Amino acid sequence: MFAAPGDVHLEGREAASAYAMQWIKGFPDARISVHNERATSNWVVQEFTFEGTHTAPMQSPMGEIPPTNRSLRGRAVQIFKVEGDAVVDTRLYFDQVQVTTQLGLMPESAMA
Question: For 2-111, which CATH class?
Fold first, then answer.
């Protein structure tokens, strides 16, 4: 199971990988920096920063977003459950308003 902002709920490794690939394709220079990580038994929590430039089309829950050629820098948290050698449950949290504002898809005043 994979859940993310925008009411994204996916089942299966292939669907979760396809979601991640949309970000990698849309932001080919993407960098992820993990700031904090905590693991207990089979759950892992990571706080990280995603940075990149949106230079290629990207699918979103609202449809395709054409390249904006704008930079994105945002913090996020992901929580995932590991069973054996496999991640079986992932929950990703990030600020959608911050993302859409930085990409120029929403006016700056929306963040006020």
Answer: alpha beta
